[in-house]
Structures are given as C-alpha cells and as structure tokens.
What we know:
Elements (H helix, E strand, L loop, with lengths): L5 H28 L6 H26 L26
Amino acid sequence: MIVLPASNQWAAIMGKYIVAALLLAAIAGPVFAQVIPDDPAVLDRLQKKKDAEALDKQYKSTLKNTDQSGAPVKTDPWATMRGSDNSKPKN
C-alpha cells in the first residue's frame, strides 16, 4: 500500500468521488433522454391526469353543494307489500 501525504490523500479520495459521480451521470443520462415531451403517449398520459383532476374537482364541488344538514328522510320499502290492517283479531 502506498502512503500519500495528507493533501494527496484528500485529492485521491475526492478524485474517486468525482469519477463515481461522472459514471453515475453517464449511466443515468440516457434514461432521462428517453422521455420525449412531444411523444403521443406522454401527452395522452398528461391529458388523462388533467381530466382526472378536473373530474375530482367537479365531484368535490358537487359534494359541497349538496344539502347534508337536513335529517334523512325515513322510507318504508315494504309499505306496499304489507296487507291491510283488517286481519286484527276480533274480540
């Protein structure tokens, strides 16, 4: 193992970090280059996202506008299925 003076050791360590950062940048560069902003798939995805946000905004505004403060109306779904009260026992 070669022992370097303190200033040269720092330069060697920093050199390794710089080389590692450059290699990572060289590897990651083509990944970002693959996304083309004018690509129809990208534009379609952006349009779908905008449509979903607009639909969500409309849904939330509809929920705000509905009157939820009143008491719920009680309904009897079996009202038309019951017979008349003529079946009471006679005394």
